[in-house]
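chain below, 326 aa
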Amino acid sequence: MFELGHPWALLLLPLPLLVQYCCRPFEIREESLRFPLFDELACLHRGLGGVARVVPGQASVQQVVVVTGWVALCLSLAKPLWLAPPVALPVAAREIMVAIDLSRSMNETDFVEGERTMDRVQGVKEMMARFAQARRDDRLGLILFADQPFLQTPFTDSLDAWLQLLMSSEQGMAGSMTAIGDAIGLAVHAFQQARTGNRVLVLITDGKDNASMVPPLEAAQLAARHRIRIHTIAIGDPGSGDQNQPDFRQLAEIASITGGRDFRAADRNQLLAINAELNRLEPSLRGRRVHRPKHSLHHWPLSLWLAVSLPLMGLSGWRQRGRADG
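prediction:
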C-alpha cells in the first residue's frame, strides 16, 4: 500500500503553466527582408569549403524531458511511502514501583530457612527476586528509603538490571530512620514518567514513619489522586511487643486509601505467601502496540527520470548535430 507524506506538493504541478500565463516573454518586433535564395546560398557556401549550420528550433525531446522532470520533482517532494504490513509489538501494560525500607531494624536476623537464619533485607530480596521473575511483561522501578528515599532505578523493561540493582542494595546505605511518607511522594513523582495508566506501588517496611517531611497519610491521598494503588507489607510480629514494630493500622489505612491491600509478614514463609497473593492480585499484563513500517520512495521518481532522460538528451543532441553537418 502506498501513501504520500506531503500530498500538498502535488499542487505545484501546474506552477509552470501559471508562470507561463502570467509572465509573457519579452518580444521586439522589427521589419526584416525575406531572402528567397537562402538554400542555394548555403549550398554555394559548402561548395567553397565552408560549413553551413542551421540553428535548430526547440526540440520536442527537450520539452518532454523538462515536463517529465518537473513532474518527477513534484512527486519526490510529495514523499511517496510504501506501507509494510502491520506488526504487533508487545509492550508493558503495567508499571510497578517497589519501595524497600533499609533502616537499621531491617538488619534483624529473625527469618529462618531450615537451619539457616537470614536478616530481613535478605528475606525481602529473595521475595522480590521471585516477584520479578513473574513480571517479564511489566516494567519495574525500585526505591530504597531510610532517612530519606532515593530512586535506585526508574521504570525499566530490563528485569535483569533491576534484579542486579536490588541485590546490590545493603542495609544502612540510606540511613537508619524510616521515611515512609517521603518514599510514597518520590514514587508519585516517578510515576509522572509512566507510560501506562496501571500504576502499582509495593511498599515494604518494618518500622514506623519517623523521618518524613510529608505525613504518610497525606502522601497516600496524593497517590490516590494520581491513580496509584499501594500494597503495603509490614514486616514484624504484632504480638511481639517490639516498640519499633510497624504502625500496622497506618499501613492498612494507606492501602485502603489507594485501593490496595495490606499484608503482614512475621517470617520468610509468610513473605513468600504474600508474593503469591501479589501475583494473584496483580497478574502480569502484556499490551500490544500495532506498528506499520514506512519506507520512503522519494528518490525513485527522480532516479527514474535521470535514467531515462539522460540517454534521450544525448541521442537527441547527436541526431541534431548529424542533421546540421549533413
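The first helix runs from residue 15 to 22. The CA atoms of residues 37 and 43 lie 10 Å apart.
thats it, cya
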